[in-house]
Amino acid sequence: MCKALQEVSKARSVWLNLCCPHLSPTETAPQTLHLERPTKLYTSHDLEFLFLRLKSVDIGCRRDGKPPVRRRKIETTNIANRMYLVEGGRWLLVASDSGSISYFDLDASTPTESILIPDQFEPPIRVLVGYSPEIRIIMSIDMDNDSAFLSFNLLLSISIDDTPPDPKAHGVQIWKVSLALDDQQQGVGLIAEQLASFPLEPTVSAVFCQSILGDHLALTLRSDQHEESTLTFVIEWKQADGDRTNYVRRLLNPRYGKATVCLPF
Q1: Which residues pair with 194 in a beta bridge?
Q2: CA distance 101 to 111
Q3: pLDDT at 64 (0 to 100)
Q4: pTM: predicted TM-score of the whole model, two decimal places
Q5: Residue 2 host element (H or E)
Q6: 3-state DSSP of 106-170
Q7: Cα separation of 197 and 202, whole Å?
Q8: Minimal CA–CA distance to 120: which of 158, 91, 71, 83?
Q9: pLDDT tens per residue across span 138-149
Q10: Rounded-to-integer distance, Cα 249 and Cα 236, Å
């Protein structure tokens, strides 16, 4: 009897049935289990591991005042300017002042740094006394839910509060990030391909927040040459792609009146 129960507990159908309720959102709960490959590629052992880890995290979240169940320590070659945890919790993206993006696989027992996007410019010089230009990097993603494997568009905005700003360090980029696979169709890393980029006007001193969905993105930024110094624009990034600044954008939050289509600053 014990042998029969042990065999049943290893059956793939059992673990798949336990995982299924967590693979899609409900009216009362969000999706808590995210697969990065087609379900058919997950073995019984894979599904068992995912389900038991999910439950252990749930128990850990209820441990008031107790240390976390799992902890990962990472070390970067450059000082981190911004970090972003990709949906699913496995991949951590880290941006540096040179415009590079590295990533860590948090499923690994010892996460190591891998380069996703190499250095793009010289980082601003930090001075101890007087003025020091501030570089602001923001990342956000748009998951490709139609892809069988993990895939998303990464929106990367880089702004530097300097006069004049370095053109290479003052713009918006959209990258297609996909799962790198080995011969067994296992995810072993991430790869990136640039889809579009366009500059920010020199009058923009900082991008505060952003969002991307499909062919459109939204930026909330500061421009000291406007009466409304903080503005939010919606931009169709495929049309804006290029080295020009005269792309059309829609102003979303004017103090008076409705949203309008705007020309460049």
Answers
A1: 175
A2: 15
A3: 74
A4: 0.87
A5: helix 2-9
A6: CCCCCCCEEEEECCCCCCCCCCCCCCCCEEEEEEEEEECCCCCCCEEEEEEEEEEECCCCCHHHC
A7: 16
A8: 158
A9: 999 999 999 999
A10: 8
SS3 254: coil
Q: Specify the amino acid at residue 204.
A: V
**How many Cβ atoms from other residues are within 10 Å of residue 189's Cβ?**
14
- Non-local (6+) Cβ contacts of 149 within 8 A are 36, 37, 38, 178, 179, 181, 187
Number of residues in the chain: 265
- Using CA atoms, how far residue 213 sits from 141, 239, 262, in Å, is 8, 15, 20
Q: Which two tokens stand for residue 62?
A: 């209820």
CA distance 45 to 43: 5
Give the integer Cα–Cα distance in Å for 152 and 103: 14
Beta bridge partners, 220, equal 209, 232
**Is the pLDDT reported for residue 117 higher than 70?**
yes
CA distance 92 to 207: 22
**CA–CA gap between residue 159 and residue 202 (Å, rounded):** 9
- Alpha carbons 122 and 120: distance in angstroms, whole number: 7
Tell the residue number behind the tokens 């923009």, with chain if given: 204
